[in-house]
Amino acid sequence: MRLRQGDFTRETSYAQDPSAAAAAFAAAGAHWLHVVDLDGARSGIPGHGRTITEIVDAAGERLQVEVGGGLRDESAVAQALGSGATRVVIGTAALRDPAFVGRIVAAYGSSRVAVAIDVRDGLAVGEGWATGSPGIDVAVAIERLADVGLTTFEVTAIERDGLLEGPDLRLYERLVRLDRGDLVASGGITTLRDIAALREVGCRGGIVGRAFHEGRLDLTDALAFVASLG
User: Fold this and answer.
1) Long-range contacts: 135-142, Cβ < 8 Å, 24+?
2) What φ, ψ does residue 48 adopt, rounded to 5°?
């Protein structure tokens, strides 16, 4: 399922069987699968542990899975990693308490932790992107988290999310210039040109959802194009 601009009233379902979708991505040659428990992101309590385990099993050894949504304490993180996920993605809890992220990095290593930096009007927001949720300046958020050892930031331009209108290159270029870790872009990525532009501004990767599901971007073509960039 995908949302538009983080709005739970504007959701679209694409596949009834997440495990089958994971297996299809693995068969196509994908290296990473980004999985979000949307119910957990909204409520703060992960509720799809069994499904996550099934997705990881279906992905197999070739496809690494990262999991986010509602991971707001050590127990939830341990459960997600215990499912076989390669990496967890922490959102709301990271903004509230960077020291929490520092403890997770210390326990599992920086390669197994990323933080979702979801940006609306220049502010990093949590709480499942709920309108009116408190936020802090996105650059400040990244600086604070880098200071506790985080090295991977997954930045979503909420205004572009799910609209298939291209990524917010100005936002990503500004944040890359902070030079505080690897930046993974999310929101609006639709074409091979978008991928090339993100590479040009210095992003280490991009998260693509709706464009694949709706046939706007072919996964095989995208993987071959990224490989051609070196």
Assistant:
1) 135/95, 136/95, 138/171, 138/175, 139/174, 139/175, 139/178, 141/94, 141/95, 141/117, 142/117, 142/175, 142/178, 142/180, 142/181
2) -130, 40
pLDDT (0 to 100) of residue 38 = 86
Cα gap 49→77, rounded to integer Å: 11
Rounded Cα–Cα distance for residues 132 and 121 (Å): 12
Domains of the chain: 2-229 (3.20.20.70)
% of the chain surpassing 90 pLDDT: 73
Cβ-based neighbours of 188, under 8 Å, separated by 6 or more:
157, 160, 161, 163, 164, 165, 166, 167, 168, 194
| Cα 72 from Cα 209, distance rounded (Å) | 24
Q: Please tell me the distance from the alpha carbon of residue 32 to that of residue 30, in angstroms, as a whole number.
A: 6
**pTM score > 0.90 for this model?**
no
